[in-house]
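Predict structure. Chain length: 306.
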Amino acid sequence: MEIREFLSEIAHLRVHNASGDEVMVYCPWHDDQNASLAINYKKGAYHCFSGCVKGSGGLRPLFKELDPSGNVEQRFMSLFVGHTLSMFAKIEKLSDTQTSTADGYAIEELPLAIDNDYLGKRGITNETVQRFGLRYHALDDCIVIPVDIKGESFGYIRRNISSNPKYLNSKDMRRDIIVYPYDLFEAKDNTVFVCEGPFDAIKAHQLGLRNTICTLGGTISDNQARLIGELGSRVVLCVDKDDSGVRITENNAKKLTSKFGFWVEYTCAPGLAKDFGDSDDLTSLEIVSPYRLKAINRDLSYLIQN
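Prediction complete.
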């Protein structure tokens, strides 16, 4: 979407003309017959020549004034924040309510990833973006996933869209003491679905399986097992459909049963989906116990092949 279209269709401003980075619109704060509000979106500057509004530190104050609900501001930040640093000011000093990230930005100052192309391709809705507080960092082209446990911020998970590695955790955030999303988990039947990645858990929640958490990949630590135990005693391990996923699941099952006494069962994404993150429907999950697999003389590979 071009800036002129955004101002007209989303901000509902009457656009007169555009020249380079500057757009002239009819000011909504006075009876404007001359299109006297100039907006330069790359410089982050705006100026009504009748004196209604003026600013040069980014366009967010302009859109807040135009729409106090914040919807226009969030849409603008999601669509255009990557064009210039002036729109995305660094935080010099964080208040007690802001969350600092390793690169010096405050998570709460990042725009929600509303209408984000990457999330849209993954089937993540704007409602889910809001529920999980998913943010977009345009300069690094990444999704930022805040991680909270029992109301305390532990940092964030960064999912790079156009660079590698795909996933990075914030500095000093220990994976071994986190299950995600702990605070959004909804207890049901004393059962905890456990998957590997954050988008597996996010998509499961969106599809109605809200008693799902993820361990951020790999082997389940003792601390993570204890957190899982706070949520339920029946664990359904969600197997990724590859050799690595089978191996990790087998090791985790052995630990959870022998060391912690959980009742463990298995499932995997239905159909051709590799994991929960690729799924569109989780209503027909097949859940099997180790005892059933043993009875039919099969291992986990049987589950992911059927």
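Summary: The radius of gyration is 24 Å.
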